[in-house]
Amino acid sequence: MVHLDNITTKTGDAGTTRLGDGTEVTKFDPRIECLGSLDELNAHLGLALAGPVPATYYDWIRQIQNDLFDLGAELCVPADSEIQIPPRITNHQVKRLENWLGKLHKKLPALSSFILPGGAPLPASLHLARTVCRRAERDLWKLADQEKVSDQGMIYLNRLSDLLFQLARITEDPENPAPLWMPAKKAE
Asked: Which helix (H) or strand (E) holds 24?
């Protein structure tokens, strides 16, 4: 378990921060950018959970929040560090997301148009989380371009963005559905 006595360390006042192994890096280091995107994604999921959420999906999202912390813990230490963190996101977590996606796929009709984010608060917030998830995935790929990171983390984020899209669809309010995209030609 983590124990934090003091939140204000003042170590970041000069534009740097420390990784999990004590390595000092700039606040715009690709690893920090990725960790920041994961943190933002987790905060958006927490906001989604602040409103009414069906129990099953609440449990799924809470599990995802824990997975994102696991991924962040894995990423906070560089692969070449003397401190070695075993992969925390494995094929198990990826398969769990794929299982959930399969369950949603069976319940949802095929799409005949793109969906514009909006409608009720819960699906709109899940669409926002999806876009942040896509950024986190891109940030992780940028980091992977520079150094070794676990492939499973990248796969996990890819599946997660799909799951968040489907969760936004399944939680739509029939009285306030997300609008459909109307191409310019049709809108005229």
From this structure: strand 24-26
**Encoded tokens for 145:** 């371009």
Q: SS3 of 128, please?
A: helix
Between CA 136 and CA 154 the distance in angstroms is: 9
User: In the Cβ-directed half-sphere of 93, how many Cα atoms lie within 13 Å?
Assistant: 24
* Beta-carbon contacts of residue 167 (< 8 Å; ≥ 6 apart): 57, 60, 61, 104, 123, 126
pLDDT at residue number 6: 64
Angle between helices 151-170 and 55-75 (to 10 degrees): 160
Q: Mean pLDDT of residues grouped by 10 in the chain (188 residues)? A: 63 84 93 98 98 96 98 94 90 98 96 90 96 98 94 97 97 88 74
Judged by phi (left if over 0) then psi (alpha if -120 to 50, else beta), residue 22 lies in: left
Kindly list the structural domains of the chain, giving each domain's residue range(s) and its CATH number in brackets, ordered by start: 24-105+118-173 (1.20.1200.10)
pTM: 0.91
Closest CA to 160 of 132, 125, 119, 118: 132
Alpha carbon 11 to its chain centroid, in Å, reads 27
Tokens of 91: 């094929």
Q: Cα–Cα distance between 144 and 154 in angstroms, integer?
A: 9
53 is written with which tokens? Answer: 């959420």
